[in-house]
Write a structure and sequence with these properties.
The structure holds two protein chains of two kinds.
Chain A (H helix, E strand, L loop, with lengths): L4 H32 L6 H18 L4 H27 L4 H27 L13 E3 L4 E3 H23 L1 H11 L1 H6 L4 H26 L7 H15 L4 H22 L4 H15 L10
Antiparallel strand pairs in A: 1-2
Helix pairs in contact in A: 1-5, 1-6, 1-8, 1-9, 1-10, 2-3, 2-4, 2-8, 2-9, 3-8, 5-6, 5-8, 6-8, 9-10, 9-11, 10-11
Chain B lengths: L17 H18 L3 H25 L8 H17 L4 H7 L2 H13 L5 H22 L1 H4 L5 E2 L10 H28 L1 H11 L1 H6 L4 H28 L1 E2 L6 H14 L6 H19 L2 H18 L5 H17 L1
Antiparallel strand pairs in B: 1-2
């Protein structure tokens, strides 16, 4: 296969764009896992709800989708709190398989409610239209879409903001403490139930942003989130369950790897690549690349 | 989790009347077919029986602590192997159905071997990953054999001369018999010394190893048996109900349903998968007819969420509670 420098650059940039979306999803998942030691597979459905709400808000209020995104993240974040309160908090501490079971039950509810609302109006796919859809920077060798720049910038700004929150504020310190040792945090007077809710809120809001950005660069359907969330989970296993650094680095890196590998192996391998990678790594290091930490 | 807090396994250590339950299922199933001649109802129940075999297979792997999220690998490979053996080599379908699942059994053995050091999430994700990989392999690398995404037509289990009604009833009875067979097998396995070893591995692998349990051997055994049983369900499904096999079988859905059915019914009990498949599936068909596709799945999701919150040990617990209650009443009265 012929590969010149401009298409290589194109693939890398696409990888970074996709990687930023994985990064947001994986970070939300790993935050929740760190604190509650559970995995919410329904994160992918929250992601598609986020995309759909952004789409609707931008359309109805006739505002810029990047502004609508904030409203969508807020709504989905609240939904995350509800899911924690009425669902996961009740089964915490029971058998591990019960979380998977509840996640799947949630997937059924969220996905089909979305499909029920979505399909009659938009048939199979919708795409979020931004005012910059046709604008691009001319960099000589390649054209760089405005949306790509905004997307990467937004994702990174959110990550920096999250980093500041986690490492420079009192609430962030509570959150990290709970993640490191739940009982010790409780004994220090931290209200871990509020930390749980906060984590679910942040996680769900990040998923909504991820979904909205996905909807800007891809046509989306109510069913697009499931496999994305599972791949994001594969990424956080590789990066070490509960590790935010692992999720950020892993998510970005994985986006690039997927993009390059898809180019060389063909489209049908796109979803399997994450798992080939996961299997190879887990065979060599059954605990993941980075060990679990705060 | 501390041992003190853990509730005893559903069904407890009390010996269950396995033979009686098996006979009851056969009689009830036979009577139902004799009384209800509606083709559509029988077809739904045939599907329930086949998926109860599949759920049972998942349950056996789970009994050893290997919670698979990729059982569709075995379901699909069993179906493909059997369909291709019968279609390309002309082996009688009734024979191919039992030879074909040897392929998923072998694949399950290989996957279990690779996953020996993995547990919980890690194991779940790797098994899930294999399904995605097997799907691509079936479509791309073996496309010449499997007709890629179009799939392959499956020969019927029954001679072509029979009427549609007869074929429906025969398929129903065959599925019922195989389901009861798989129930007897699972009950025997769980009740035996092997089952005890598997349960020990499930509860604490380290303690099991220290007590002299051959953890490696038993884990491999459980997955291999489970792989065979899942493949058998896949083969039966293709030769009776769908009459066709395509790579769609390696999707996420076919991997999660056995998990949902089993846990809803009663995890790690031989009756659970059957009860769960029957209740969830019949509820599904009923809501589907009354309300429509999206609404029925929303309701099922909500029902499952309620089940896990209020009956974390599955609905089978209700049956044992009623049995317990009548027993104490009889003793007291």
């Amino acid at each position: 296969m012929v590969l010149d420098s401009s298409s290589l650059l194109q693939i890398l940039i696409w990888g970074l764009v996709v990687g930023s979306i994985y990064m947001l999803l994986a970070t939300g998942l790993t935050l929740i896992f760190g604190v509650m030691k559970i995995v919410n597979f329904a994160q992918g459905e929250l992601m598609m709800w986020g995309a759909f709400l952004t789409f609707l808000l931008a359309r109805w209020l006739e505002v810029n989708p990047y502004a609508a995104l904030a409203g969508s993240a807020l709504l989905v974040g609240l939904a995350g709190v509800a899911i924690e309160r009425f669902g996961f908090s009740r089964i915490r501490g029971t058998a591990k398989i019960n979380e998977i079971f509840l996640s799947i039950a949630l997937i059924l509810v969220l996905q089909n409610t979305l499909a029920r609302v979505f399909v009659p109006y938009f048939r199979e796919y919708a795409q979020i239209r931004t005012p910059y859809a046709t604008e691009f920077f001319d960099l000589g060798v390649i054209n760089l879409r405005y949306d790509f720049v905004i997307l990467i910038g937004l994702a990174w700004a959110l990550m920096l903001g999250l980093g500041y929150f986690l490492y420079r504020t009192a609430v962030g310190r509570d959150l990290r403490a709970t993640s490191q040792n739940r009982s010790a945090a409780m004994l220090m007077g931290i209200d871990v139930r509020r930390v749980d809710m906060l984590c679910f809120c942040i996680g769900a809001a990040l998923a909504a942003v991820a979904g909205s950005l996905y909807g800007v660069i891809n046509p989306f359907s109510p069913y697009a989130g499931t496999i994305a969330a599972i791949k994001a989970f594969a990424v956080i296993i590789l990066g070490g369950l509960g590790s935010v650094t692992g999720a950020v680095v892993g998510g970005l890196l994985y986006g690039v790897v997927e993009s390059v590998a898809t180019f060389f192996l063909g489209g049908s391998w796109r979803d399997a690549i994450a798992f080939v990678l996961l299997i190879v790594v887990l065979m060599l290091r059954p605990e993941g690349i980075f060990k679990e930490g705060g | 989790m501390s041992p003190a807090r853990r509730a005893p396994a559903p069904g407890g250590r009390r010996r269950r009347p396995v033979a009686l339950i098996a006979l009851g299922m056969l009689v009830a199933g036979g009577l139902f077919a004799a009384l209800v001649r509606d083709q559509f109802t029988l077809q739904i129940l045939t599907f329930v029986f086949i998926f109860a075999i599949y759920a049972q297979s998942w349950n056996l792997a789970a009994h050893s602590g290997q919670y698979s999220l990729g059982h569709a690998t075995f379901l699909g490979l069993g179906a493909y192997a059997s369909v291709l053996l019968a279609g390309r080599l002309g082996i009688p379908v009734a024979l191919a159905m039992f030879i074909g699942p040897l392929l998923p059994a072998l694949v399950a053995l290989g996957i279990a071997r690779l996953c020996l050091r993995l547990r919980e999430w890690y194991l779940g994700m790797v098994t899930f990953g294999f399904t995605a990989i097997v799907q691509v392999l079936v479509v791309e690398q073996f496309g010449w054999l499997t007709n890629r995404w179009d799939g392959v037509e499956a020969r019927s289990l029954w001679p072509g001369a029979l009427s549609v009604e007869t074929v429906g009833v025969l398929s129903y009875l065959a599925a019922l018999a195989l389901m009861v067979g798989s129930y007897l097998f699972a009950a025997a396995m769980m009740g035996s010394k092997t089952g005890l070893a598997l349960a020990a591995i499930h509860d604490n692998e380290l303690v099991a190893r220290v007590s002299g349990v051959n953890v490696r051997g038993y884990r491999l055994l459980a997955m291999t048996v489970s792989g065979y049983l899942a493949g058998l369900a896949g083969a039966l499904n293709s030769h009776t109900l769908t009459r066709h096999i395509s790579p769609g079988i390696f999707g996420i859905e076919d991997s999660i349903w056995p998990l949902l059915y089993t846990i809803a019914g009663g995890l790690r009990t031989p009756e659970g998968p059957i009860l769960g498949t029957l209740i969830v599936r019949v509820f599904w068909e009923w809501t589907l007819r009354e309300l429509g596709g999206f609404e029925s799945l929303i309701l099922i999701g909500a029902a499952l969420a309620l089940i896990v919150m209020f009956f974390p040990q599955g609905l089978y617990v209700l049956v044992t509670r009623v049995a317990e209650w009548t027993r104490t009443r009889v003793r007291a009265g």
